[in-house]
Specification:
The chain has 8 helices and 12 strands. The chain is of the alpha/beta class. The chain folds into 2 domains: 2-96 and 201-226, D-Maltodextrin-Binding Protein, domain 2; 97-200, D-Maltodextrin-Binding Protein, domain 2 (3-Layer(aba) Sandwich), CATH 3.40.190. The strands form 3 sheets. It has a 5-stranded mixed beta sheet. Strands 9-8-10-7-11 form a 5-stranded mixed beta sheet. A two-stranded antiparallel sheet has the order 2-3. The longest helix has 15 residues, at 113-127. It is elongated, with a radius of gyration of 20 Å. Bound molecules: adenosine-5'-triphosphate and 1-O-pyrophosphono-5-O-phosphono-alpha-D-ribofuranose (PRP). 1-O-pyrophosphono-5-O-phosphono-alpha-D-ribofuranose binds next to strand 10 and helix 7. One of its GO terms (cellular component) is cytoplasm.
Amino acid sequence: MIKLGVPSKGRLMEKTFEWFGARDITLKRTGSEREYAGAVEGAEGVALVLLSAGEIPRELAAGRIHLGVTGSDLVREKLADWDSQVASLAPMGFGHADLILAVPDCWADVDSLEDLDACAHRFRGTHGFRLRIATKYHRLVREFLTREGVADWQLVDSQGATEGTIANHTAEAIADITSSGETLRANHLKILSDAVIHQSQATLFASRAPIWGGHEAAMSQFARQLGVDLPEL
Ligand SMILES: Nc1ncnc2c1ncn2[C@@H]1O[C@H](COP(=O)(O)OP(=O)(O)OP(=O)(O)O)[C@@H](O)[C@H]1O
Ligand SMILES: O=P(O)(O)OC[C@H]1O[C@H](OP(=O)(O)OP(=O)(O)O)[C@H](O)[C@@H]1O
């Protein structure tokens, strides 16, 4: 069977079910409300695996699932050289969120990366340690700031409530996803004008692990049903 991993709960799961439903493929959870079991109707040889969105990149890379739906941000964050490990088959048009850098509203002279670079330099001179940026997106933020030539920062890990770290004095800036912008506003933060690190959306990915032997015909048929082009895997 071709194993299709989809998020096990919430809006990502519901929107994923709708996306496949619009292509005449029914995905559904089976069993009790709390049981993570699922079924596929309308596609031959495809099995549903319900997983945490955050674990789907790793499962794809390891070849434990053939196809997976998750945020494009999570694939880029969790997998080194992501496009050598998975192939992007289709952006799905939901789960939009931007990974951004933000600083306190009251930092009147910091609106861009250039300003942040200057500020971080001064900060280190004054405080004797590097400006702290709280995030759970370590790989993406490190690559972005290095590429953009910003110096004198350090990352501090924050796995949730990241916007609160500044008020708690554990960071001076944050890098997190935003969709409505409400969490940033409520915590008196502003986005740096040129610091949109990644525009994420839910995406259908295929594993590039050597697991496709014997599944080629079923996958071609499934791709036709979904209306997606199949790259070399
Ligand atoms: N407002 C939002 N808040 C959080 N995630 C969002 C938002 N909008 C879109 N997303 C996307 O949803 C995905 C995260 O989903 P989710 O929070 O279900 O994952 P997870 O934290 O790994 O799940 P779990 O709680 O099961 O571990 C990311 O790709 C993220 O970009
Ligand atoms: O722009 P907004 O619409 O306000 O959404 C952005 C917020 O949503 C996410 O948090 P989540 O609710 O997943 O909780 P978390 O703090 O545990 O990450 C994200 O980390 C932001 O904090």
